[in-house]
Amino acid sequence: IIELDRIAGEPIDVLVNGKLVAKGEVVVIEECFNAIVAGESGPDVPHFRVDSGYKIPAAWLIDQCGWKGYSEGNVAVWHLQPLVIVNPERKASPCEVIALEKKIIDSVRDKFGIKLSPEVEHI
Fold first, then answer.
1. Residue 56, CA atoms < 13 Å, CB-side half-sphere
2. Of 57, 88, 54, whose CA–CA distance to 72 is shortest?
3. H helix and E strand count, the chain
4. Any idea of the CA torsion for 15, 21, 24, 30, to the nearest 10 degrees?
5. For the chain, first and last CA: distance in Å?
6. pTM, whole model, 2 decimals?
7. How far is CA 30 from CA 26, 33, 35, 69, 118, in A?
8. What's the pLDDT band for 18 if we cut at 50, 70, 90?
């Protein structure tokens, strides 16, 4: 559990010893979280409580959208970890990687109403 200095719904950065280890969005239970629990027919939604609501792991959200192990062109979502986009043949362009990232973010937003933010810095 971390102390928040943001209002519910805003993105947050999780820092450990000054190093960014995760990004996310605080979901308040009266809005998004209840809708997700009520709308899911599968396994329980993993979550942990924070001061102003609950956090749901991005990996679980991405996996529930069917991305784990998915491949398209020269890029893929790693079959063991849905947070990782891989370039298995070393032929993917940056545009291909970013396009897949955007599709994943859009699908999570469409299914759950939660906007994910990339943890990597695009250069």
1. 24
2. 88
3. 3, 7
4. -70
5. 32
6. 0.66
7. 12, 7, 8, 33, 26
8. low
Give the DSSP H or E segment for 14: strand 11-16
16: three-class secondary structure by DSSP = strand
What is the CA angle 95-98-101, rounded to 5?
Answer: 150
Residue matched to tokens 């491949």: 71
Contacts for 31-35: CB closer than 8 Å, 24+ residues apart: 32/112, 32/113, 32/114, 35/113
Average pLDDT of the segment spanning 31-35: 37
As beta bridge partners, residue 11 has 25
Element (H, E) at 110: helix 94-112
